[in-house]
Amino acid sequence: xxxxxxxxxxxxxVAVRPAVETQQGAAAPLSRAAIAMLAASCGLAVANANYAxxxxxxxxxxxxxxxxxxxxxxxLTQFGVTFGIAFLxxxxxxxxxxxxxxxxxxxxxxHRSRSAAGSPRCWRRE
Length: 126
Known about the structure:
The chain has helices at 3-16, 32-50, 56-62, 72-88, 97-118, 120-123. By secondary structure, the chain is mainly α.
């Protein structure tokens, strides 16, 4: 294949491809659907931290917490978000995705089993 034929084939391929040409190793631009999904995820994550506010009294009663400690629930939630952003988010550049997912699944199972075991309702016989 000579140079002019290769150049024409490349021009046709670039004309068909809608994505912006990027350097090797650079990320391609995100689609509108991906941006909308990321925006919705961010909004739900922020809203999740605030959903507990109207339910504090009910959560305190179910966990048998005194009213003076109810403020710890949203405070610890905010602390967890801050910790995650400051220390866990940068690990995305260092650790592979499959290893992170395995560690996260193990962590969540451990947290949920400890939460269930620590709940007063778990040990109460009715």
